[in-house]
TrEMBL record, chains A, B, C:
Stated name of the protein: Dirigent protein
Family: Belongs to the plant dirigent protein family.
GO CC annotation, single: apoplast
Record carries keyword Nucleotide-binding: no
Signal peptide: 1-19
Pfam families: Dirigent
Self-association and partners: Homodimer.
Domain of life, source organism: Eukaryota
Chief place of localization: secreted
One of the GO biological process terms: phenylpropanoid biosynthetic process
């Protein structure tokens, strides 16, 4: 009787947690290594170009949504921290630190929005997609979170994914790797996915 | 001894993965059919009206956040692709292609923001809620992702839900179903939820 | 033979759903009490200050992204409901209703964006992070959803978290607790997490 219970419980659990495995065809299933060890991780650098060195926007990869050509002329009352500034971006991402040869044709891009939200210091908030478009990786990761610039590293959430990153969740750790005034900044992103669906 | 281990393991797993089932009352539980077959799916059409045919905004369902009445006068330097333009929308959604009789009183609406993020081509990014308000379905789905307009279909993430869609996750596939200049566009959305909580 | 199957199934399930438990060290694991009873809950009040009583922005915690000092001068065609208005905020949050002694140095803050998206009535949409920075709690929760102001309470999604709230998911219920014209509003947020990772 007890063993029957086990059989029933085991079959019930099997159908509940791994229904995809019992199908004949190879099918997608949820994969968690552990919540301490990611099922997938990668380091990427985001390059955000506001103005190039000739002070032109011809190479820019982001645009201030509110005053597209006036990011350098902050509202005086905000104390130069751009409180309220919303910036739309479409930034190349690379595995190494170097800028890609072409800013437009990059295999990985970050597309979305960031905004400055402090009167006292530079502080930002991000919501964006990482778009992968190479033969090796195709799909998107969707992220959002607070970028507390005053802290050396800060974590944001990977809230979902598509394609090769179907349904993925995890955490991305941001670190400012370079900051050149209003022309360029580079963020290091250590992306760790803890729930993969492969 | 071995069978005791199994009993313990089975009981442990039972409590871990299906605690809600052992309660006396009917209670909500996580339901995954498989990660290939959605636990819920639906097709909806989103209608975004910028200007009506008399070039007025009286019927518009979206508003450019930056210059509410000047969407047609793009910043010249962006090459007509509206790079940096942020648009707030509150669009009716329908199960068929036809516009609803009333633009305001629709049982399903998409509320949120999209933005244009490319200098080379039309390319967008979305973050929004689908608000269901009928006798049959009540609640919201929350979505975000890159809308790579150049691709025939593109996937975004369903990152959460409330009410009848409590905690749901999945993927929505977008397809441009109609595009009439700056007056109107219609997106087909195939929404597939893979994690339901019922 | 049947019992062998059970052993295999049990071991398979054990490795699939609770890999972290079998490690020697203490490690993070997914914790769900049930989908009716949160694994963590809290009530917080969000204080959004647009203008102080002398009609100045010196104490403001939010900024209209589009016209940083002109929130009170709505576009006439929007009928006073600010359709299309995007507001960036960095609001103190408290456990009680009272404003914190200092608006800048608060242990809990909400950082992100809300926007007004209706021509007929006040209706909003939120995407933001709750940033915890005390000795007791450190980390962030990331939320998004429709704030249907006409309804007494409305639910939005907790789509992820970091630090002490690593990977958390759940629902937050909003209620307007105070509304003082264009100077101040207070939202009560009942946050219930159903998936914790501890």
């Amino acid at each position: 009787m007890a063993s029957l219970t086990i059989v029933v419980a085991a079959i019930f659990l099997l159908s509940l947690t791994s229904a995809s495995v019992v199908h004949g065809r190879s099918s997608r299933r949820r994969f968690v290594r552990s919540y301490d060890e990611p099922c997938m991780e990668m380091r990427l650098y985001l390059h955000d170009i506001l103005y190039d060195y000739s002070n032109s926007t011809s190479n820019s990869t982001s645009a201030a949504a509110t005053k597209p050509t006036a990011l350098a002329t902050a509202v005086p009352s905000t104390g130069g921290t751009f409180f309220g500034q919303v910036v739309v971006f479409n930034d190349p991402m690379t595995e190494g630190r170097a800028l890609p040869p072409s800013l437009e044709e990059t295999a990985v891009r970050a597309q979305g929005v960031y905004l400055y939200n402090s009167k006292e210091a530079f502080n930002a908030w991000f919501a964006f997609s990482i778009v992968f478009n190479s033969t090796g990786r195709r799909g998107t990761l969707n992220l959002m979170g607070a970028d507390i610039i005053a802290e050396k590293t800060r974590d944001i959430s990977v809230v979902g994914g598509t394609g090769d990153f179907f349904m993925s969740r995890g955490v991305a750790t941001l670190r400012t790797d370079a900051f050149e005034g209003f022309t360029y900044f580079r963020l290091q992103m250590d992306i760790k996915l803890y729930e993969c669906y492969v």
